[in-house]
């Protein structure tokens, strides 16, 4: 009995990724306004063509790959379609790190799945914490020193725009990261939110950086978190290695069908329209939040969410939760005491949030 004791020790010890949807449901709570997962506030409609589902799908759906290659400006051999960016993260670790021996490096506060995937694989995590004083900019000198000191580091994860802080990496920092890792480790730039700041992609660096891999997704600006489709972009050599590790048929035919439509000219035009609307609502929300008592700081954001520091974040977070408004508490992340991450919602959702916050903060 107790079959869970048969699980690998690192899995028994693992703190898994927390999905608020499951926590709210388990607590029998209600969630009316979901501003916790950086999804698109608006949905898009797709007609599903019911093809021959008795057959396995194309392992890498050719038309989706061709369209994503055209959209991102690389060749199809440089692209691998994955089950969301999350599978991309996991594949990178499984391809380049040996459990019990190797390490990955990250710059907290950042996206949680780099460490969850590493810990699952018994891969050590080296943290170079960034600080709000310099806008959460990774320290390239500290990275050089860490790589020098710790030869087990195989993969370096950086995120731009970074979740949950919203800041971009400058071109100088990207150059620094590329040069520090060259010939030494795989450098991963997670661009899950890049459509909200499209001029800042590092995709043009790929040609001269064969060790660079860029993570992309349809979950955010493309409003398709529900289909679980993302991409890795890298040199054909690196993508070829990861291709060996990915499951045989990772992208279900209905997913490929919808992704293909989303990546048509019309789909991309709709995405860009949604992005502009999101940026407008983000600025309106940021302005309104800055005017509230008890809001200490709203960080500048290059993405579809805001990081907000409150004088009494625990009271704000639970007060909103009790009112059915679900946000993402970040207060336990390094350097983020008092911080809550808020996804930009629809005008209506943002108004509900601001009304509830005004009520709560008025109770001081
Ligand atoms: N990277 C970052 C920075 C993210 O915030 C997310 C979404 N939470 C992902 C990757 C993964 O998203 P998905 O698996 O939905 O593509």
From TrEMBL:
Pfam families: Aminotran_1_2. It comes from Sutterella faecalis. GO terms for molecular function: histidinol-phosphate transaminase activity. This is Histidinol-phosphate aminotransferase. Its cofactor is pyridoxal 5'-phosphate. InterPro entries: Aminotrans_II_pyridoxalP_BS, Aminotransferase_I/II_large, HisP_aminotrans, PyrdxlP-dep_Trfase, PyrdxlP-dep_Trfase_major, PyrdxlP-dep_Trfase_small. Homodimer. Its EC number is 2.6.1.9. The keyword Amino-acid biosynthesis applies. SUPFAM superfamilies: PLP-dependent transferases (SSF53383).
